[in-house]
Amino acid sequence: MPPLIPPATVGRLVTYLRVLTDLAAAGVERISSDELGERAGTSAFQVRKDLATCGRFGTRGSGYAVATLERELRRVLGLTRVWSVAIVGMGRLGQALADYPNFAEYDFALRGAFDVDPAKGGLAAGPLVVRHLSELPAAVRDDGISMAFLTVPAPAAQVAADVLVAAGVRGILNFAPTVIHVPDGVHVEGVDFLGGLQRLAFALGGHTAATIDLGV
Amino acid sequence: MPPLIPPATVGRLVTYLRVLTDLAAAGVERISSDELGERAGTSAFQVRKDLATCGRFGTRGSGYAVATLERELRRVLGLTRVWSVAIVGMGRLGQALADYPNFAEYDFALRGAFDVDPAKGGLAAGPLVVRHLSELPAAVRDDGISMAFLTVPAPAAQVAADVLVAAGVRGILNFAPTVIHVPDGVHVEGVDFLGGLQRLAFALGGHTAATIDLGV
DNA sequence: ATATGTGAATTGATTCACAGCG
DNA sequence: CGCTGTGAATCAATTCACATAT
Q1: Residue B90 shares a structural domain with residue B147
Q2: Rounded CA gap, B104 and B109, in Å?
Q3: Fewer CB within 10 A of the terminal residue: chain A, N end or C end?
Q4: d(CA A79, CA B177)
Q5: Residue % of chain B over a pLDDT of 70
Q6: Same domain, yes or no, for A92 and A12?
Q7: What is the distance in angstroms measured between the alpha-carbon CA of A129 and the sugar C1' of D15?
Q8: Report field, pTM of the whole predicted structure over 0.90
Q9: Residue A14 and residue A25: Cα distance in Å, rounded?
Q10: Is A197 close to B147, i.e. CB distance below 8 A?
Q11: What span, in angstroms and rounded, lies between the C-alpha atoms of A124 and A149?
């Protein structure tokens, strides 16, 4: 069975949720698909279609209640619980992520920092202490870790991903500029700034006439 | 007008280019669409269709010459020149990017690091010295900066983007977890690890199992 | 009056089958 | 005979028009 909600829609739901959180903080109580679309960088049509794939949350004539819609999107996206996350690869990027102070605000909990280099064991990384990668399986079991940041160098990415999969991690955020292969049931999201630079190079290269590209 | 390439294809061309660079380094001289697809995480059909949108680079019966295809993809993607990049926002992430040692290897050159905080002016950031954001327009003009990493906090992202656009930067890699609005002709690529976490949460949320029908 | 929810139309992307070249 | 290049078919996503509910 294909996913209940198309991937493209899931990506936009995340954006809508952000806009709604900002609106709620600003004290706004209701919003129309028109304005939500404007703020999320898409169309009112798209907003209504996306929201309709997961329920009927609006009121005809007066739009959506910000608080209700925010709560419903959290539920749909699986964000009503705290997810525990590990970092694998404590180079510059892994360190920067460990230092990131706002995970709790997004309902994620950093629960482990791992590296294969024994020299890094015991070092501080934000609120954590770096452990050897061989200790990952026990941490996954004991701390309920279900996702990981993969922040190792590209040549090490596949091996590290294999370790994560074997340990039972089913969601990988891959920062390495390479494709990793995982079995069915394990999900990979790429975070690829070098690729982003190269796609920008193409866009600026004069191959396309002026195109609108609203950020997602 | 040169043939236009769909955005989805551009993203995969970047991946193919990476695979080809690795293969060339490993001394491999020829590759089939079958194996390139396997390594890039897609199908042989897709590889051939993608490559056909920008030329005829293969040889029937024996596949693609690695060196030739790599060179052609570089040309198509606009990677035959060095692109100069600035960093705007010298928090943890901006600092980590400034320290990244491999930009030259990808034919990008870091040419400026900027922040609005006067206290950060003069600090070292990798090979650069942090300047005040008000000096950005001169740097864009004098150093040929055409892209920027936007690594400011989310509430500051739109204002900073406006400064970049006014200074003439036409490509923005947006690391802030918010949508930014830019005029036609300016391109934005999002690098969104928090969004990635949330999309993983949805994927792991158990929506693959049978779900209860909504009553109509 | 106003703005949602949704079938229909359109556009875009992927998959396929096979013709055609080496 | 092997493997690319490509039209045709399938599948997905977006855009639109409007009926419908408040």
Answers
A1: yes
A2: 6
A3: N
A4: 17
A5: 94
A6: no
A7: 51
A8: yes
A9: 17
A10: yes
A11: 17
Does the CB of B43 sit below 7 A from strand D?
Answer: no
CATH number, domain containing residue A186? 3.40.50.720
Model confidence band, residue B176 (pLDDT cutoffs 50, 70, 90): very high
Cβ pair A106:B194 closer than 8 A: yes
- Separation CA B49–CA B33 (nearest Å): 10
Phi first, then psi: give them for residue B198, nearest 5 degrees. Answer: -70, -35
Tell me if A212 is assigned to some domain: no
Do residue A64 and residue A93 come from a single domain? no
pLDDT at A189 over 60: yes
**Chain-wide mean pLDDT for chain B?**
94
Which residues, in sequence order, are bridge partners of residue B52? none
Strand C proximal to A61 Cβ, under 7 A:
yes
Q: What is the mean pLDDT of chain A?
A: 94
- Which of chain A's residues have a Cβ under 8 Å away from the Cβ of B96? 92-93, 95-96
Percent of chain A with pLDDT over 70: 94
Residue nearest to nucleotide D5 (CA to C1'): B52
Query: Are B95 and B186 part of one and the same domain?
Result: yes
pLDDT tens-digit profile of A47-90? Answer: 999 999 999 999 999 999 999 999 999 999 999 999 999 999 99
Q: Give the domain extent around B131.
A: 83-196
**A190 pLDDT more than 70:** yes
Q: Is the residue at A1 inside a domain? A: no
Q: Which residue has the tokens 């997961």?
A: A54
Name the domain count of chain A: 2
- Tokens representing A3? 């996913």
Q: For chains A and B, what is the number of CB pairs under 8 angstroms?
A: 199
Would B204 be classed as within a structural domain? Answer: no
- Indicate whether A161 belongs to any domain: yes
Say if residue B192 is in the same domain as residue B88. Answer: yes
pLDDT of residue A215: 35
Residues B145 and B49 in one domain: no
Distance (Å) from CA B14 to C1' D8? 28
Token pair listed for A64: 């959506």
Of A4, A11, A177, the CB nearest to B18: A177
